[in-house]
Amino acid sequence: MTDKLVSPNGQYELDLTNEGNLILYRKSGGVVWAHGPDPFPDPVVPPSPPPPVVVVLPRLVRNGQVFGLATGARWTSIQTSDFNLLNRWQHGEDTHPVLAQRAEAGFNLLRVWTLYDIPRIGTFLDIDYSRIPEFLRLCAGYGLYVEFTAYTSIEREEHWDCLVAGSWGETNVLLELVNEGTLPVNQINMANYRRPAGVLASHGSGGSEGVPPWEPWDYVTFHTNGSSEEQRKIGHNAMEIWDGPTLTNETSRYPDVGMWVGANLLRQYSLANDSAAGAALLCAGACFHSVQGKTSELWDERTLAVAQAWARGATSVDLKCQVGAYRRRDDLLTDDLLRVYQRGNAGCIVPIRK
C-alpha cells in the first residue's frame, strides 16, 4: 500500500510506501527527492538489438596502392583496433554496442586478434572456427569489414589454415599472418604458412617503422607506434614501401603513447584528422588504435571525440585523388605545417600540421 500526497498546485506528488520509502515526484515526470532503504533498484538494461537487416558487403580487391570494392567503387580503410572483440562475442558477451559505436563514428574496418594470452588484452585460446562466418556476418550488418590477425605471440601451425577455412566465402574479411613478426616474442616459422586463395592476405608487420622483410602477398601492414612526426609517416612512409597496398594497421595507442601524450584536446583532433587524411590520400588507409580498442570496450567520451576526428579526416579526401601522381608541395608550407602532400590535381592536397 502507498500513501500519496499531492501539492496544492498539482505539480508534485509525495509517496510513502510500506517499505519505508519516501519519494517526491514531479508530476510532469522525474524524481525530485527520495529517502529509504532502496527506492530505486538498478534498472534492467535490455540487450542491444541485432542489426535490422542481413548485409553482404562487396568483396575488397587490390587497386594499385589502395583497396577498392569488387563493384568498382573506390574505398579506403578507416580502421580501428578491436583486438578482443571475437573473444568477447564468442563467449557470450553483448558486442552490439561496440559495433554500433564504431560504425556510427565513421569506421569501416576492425582489426581483430584470434589467438593470444596477453595481459590487459585478454585470453583467447579456444577459438571456435565454425562460428567465424556468423561473427563476420554480424559485423557486416554494421557495414564493417574485419582484418583478422592470426599470430600475436602464440604459434599453433594449424591455426592459420583453420582461420583461412573459417573465413572462406565471406566477403568482408582480410587476413594478416603475424603482428610485428620481427620481434622475438612474435616470431613464427614463416616458411610453414601459405598464401591463401580467395581472400586478401598479408604476411604481416614488422616493428614500428620497420618495413616487413617478407615478400608481400596481397597487401603489406605497417606500424608507426611512438615514432617522431608520426602524423605524416602514417600515410607517406607506408606509401613508399612498395607499389601495392600498404595498410598502416597500428598507430600510437590513444591516449598514452607517442603523439597523443601531452597534447591538448584540440591538438589531438588535428593529429587524428591529419593522420587519417594523409593515409586516405597516400596509402590504403590507417588504424585508430586505443586503450579501449585493445580490450574491445566502448570508447569513453574523449576517445570517441578523437576517433570521430580520425574518421572525418579519412572521409575529407576525395577518393578520386587516389589515382593521381604524388607530389610534395613544399611551396605551400607555413610555420604551422609539417608537410603538404598532393596527388593529381590541385583539389587533392592534404596539409599535415606540426
Q: In what range is the share of β-strand residues?
A: 25-35%
What CATH architecture of the largest domain do you see?
A: Alpha-Beta Barrel
Question: Order of strands across the biggest sheet?
Answer: 13-12-11-8-7-16
Q: How many domains, as an integer?
A: 2
Question: Which CATH first-tier class of the largest domain would you pick?
Answer: Alpha Beta
Look at the helices and sheets and give the structural class: alpha/beta
Question: Uncertain runs with pLDDT below 50, 5 residues or more?
Answer: 27-34, 36-43
For the termini, the CA-CA separation is 68 Å
Assembly level: single chain
Annotation field: number of helices: 8
Helix content: 10-25%
| Major sheet | 6 strands, parallel
SSE pattern: EEEEEEEHHEEEHEHEEEHEHEHHEEE
Overall description:
- The protein is an alpha/beta fold.
- It has two domains: 34 residues, Bulb-type lectin domain (Agglutinin, subunit A); 263 residues, TIM Barrel (Alpha-Beta Barrel).
- Helices cover 23% and strands 25% of the residues.
- The protein has eight helices and 19 strands.
- It has a six-stranded parallel sheet with strand order 13-12-11-8-7-16.
- Helix 6 runs parallel beside helix 8.
- The longest helix is centred in the C-terminal third of the chain and has 18 residues.
